[in-house]
Amino acid sequence: MNQPAPGDRDAFGLLVAQHHRRLFGLVLMMVRDPSGAEELTQEAFLRAYTHFDRYDVSRPFYPWLATIAVRLAQNWLHRHARTAGRETTSLDDVLPPTAPGHALDALIDGERARRLWRAVASLPSGERTAVYLHYRQEMNVTDVARALGVTSGTVKTLLFRARRKLRQTCADEDVK
Amino acid sequence: MISDQDLQAALSDLPEPSPPPELSATILASTAQLADQVPVPMPSAATEHRTWTALTAAFIGALVVFGVHAYRLLEGEVALVSATRGMPGLLSLPEVGPTALLLTAGLLLCLLALFAPDTKRRRP
C-alpha cells in the first residue's frame, strides 16, 4: 500500500483523516474513558508526527501508530492506577468497564453492540487490547505482539483466554 | 454456548466508537502548531539513502581488500597453505608498495562506511 509522502503537513493530514477514528476506538477500549481516549489519540498522532523518522516506510502505517498509542495508553493506565492509590496491581479495578456509562451510549449505537463492547471492555487490559487489535482491527499476531511489547505466543494465549471468558459471558447472558 | 467461530465473527463486527467530531481538526491544529515551533525530522528517505551509500562504500572497500588478496595469491606472493610451500600465508599483510596502500585504503573505506557517525539523522 502506498503511503502519503511523510514529513509534510498535508500528507500527515491524510493519515489523520484515515486513521483517527480507528485509533480512537483502540484507545477508548484500552482506557475506557472518552476524554482520556481523546487526549491520548491526539498525543499519539503528535508523537508519530515528531518521530516520523523512526517510521519504516516499507511497512503499513497503522500498526506503527497503534504501537505508539498502546504505549501511551499503558502509561496512562499506570498513572491513573497510581493516582487512585490502589494497592492492587490490577488496572481493571481502577476503571470499571461501566465507568463511561452514558458517554458510551452516545458513542456506540445499538444495545447489542454496546453489550458486546462492554463484554470485551470488561476483560483485563492485555486481553481486551489483543482482542480489539486482532479481531476488530485485523492486525496479525506478530503486529499485535509488537504493539503490546510481548511475544506472539503470549498474544495467542491472551486471545485464547479472552475467547474463553467471552464465551462464558455470552452463555451467562443467554441464561438471564 | 456460542461457538468459537461465531464469537470471532461477532468480535470482528465489534462496534467502533465515533470520536468527537472536532478530534481530527484538533490533531491537525496541534500538528501545525508543533511544526511551526520545531523542524520535524524527515523520515526514512534520507536515512535510507545514507544506509545504501554506506553499504555500497563498505562493499567496495571489502571488494578492494579481497581483490588485493586474490591478486597476491594469483601472483604467487602468498600461498593458501603457507607451511607446505614455505611462503607467507594468505592473511599476511604486504609491508610496502602499492598493494599495501590499496589494502589500507580498502580497509579504511570499509571501516569508515560501517562506523561513521550519522550526523544528518536527528533523534528526538
What does it look like?
Chain A is 71% helix and 0% strand. Chain A has eight helices and no strands. In chain A, helix 1 (9-31) packs antiparallel against helix 2 and helix 7 (141-148) packs across helix 8. The N and C termini of chain A lie far apart (47 Å). Residues 85-100 of chain A have low confidence and may be disordered. Chain B is an all-alpha fold and 124 residues long. At the A-B interface, helix 1, helix 2, helix 5, helix 6 and helix 8 of A face helix 1, helix 2 and helix 3 of B.
**Helicity range of chain A:** over 70%
In total, how many beta strands of chain B?
Answer: 0
Distance between the termini of chain B: 51 Å
Biggest sheet overview of chain B: none
CATH architecture heading of chain A: Up-down Bundle
Overall structural class of chain B, as computed from helix and strand content, comes to: mainly alpha
Shape of chain B: elongated
Largest interface: A-B, 49 and 38 residues
**Stretches of chain B where pLDDT falls below 50 for ≥5 residues?**
120-124
User: What is the domain tally of chain A?
Assistant: 1
CATH topology heading of chain A: Butyryl-CoA Dehydrogenase, subunit A, domain 3
- Please give the count of helices of chain A: 8
Our Rg estimate of chain B from Cα atoms comes to 30 Å
Number of strands of chain A: 0
Structural class determined from secondary elements of chain A: mainly alpha
Q: How many angstroms separate the termini of chain A?
A: 47 Å
Form type of chain A: globular
CATH class category name of chain A: Mainly Alpha
Strand content of chain A: under 5%
